[in-house]
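All the exercises in this workshop are built on plain-text protein records. Instead of coordinates, the fold is spelled out as a row of discrete tokens. Once this layout is familiar, the rest of the handout is easier to follow. The record below serves as our worked example for the rest of this section.
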Amino acid sequence: MNKQELEAFAKQAAKSIKSEADLNDFRAMLTKVTVEAALNAELEHHLGYQKNEKALTSNSRNGYSSTEEGSFELDTPRDRNGSFEPEIVKKHQSHFTSMDDKILYLYAKGMTTRDIVDTFDEMYSAEISPTLISRVTNEVIDQVIEWQSRPFEPVYHRFSRLYCG
């Protein structure tokens, strides 16, 4: 789809959007459709043939696995051998990596788990659990502690003696 076709599609879709909730629903649906199309393209590349073509290997499509992704369910295609490793949304991944980055940013700013949940609900209309926030922050807590307890560089020691007595 070229830019003009995409723009025409967006203008047509915008006619049915009457509220913020409609916009959020449309965004979620568009994200779901786009990610699922990309996952199917990844599987086609992995298998070496397109859907509805004759299989070139003993490996073939084998249905879908459903994953809850924020405010929508994502259907990830599978292969019979179980060798398909999607790149966009990894196996057993329960949320997008970009969400992790946002969670860690807010956590680093000093927000509590509940504050982060409220912020995601307010900004993205995404209902995420405090457990998810804790899981994401626990994945990096060792690195945070290590960074916080790192030794100061010599330049900081000189500054400390000059200005702090």
In short: The first strand starts at residue 61 and ends at 69.
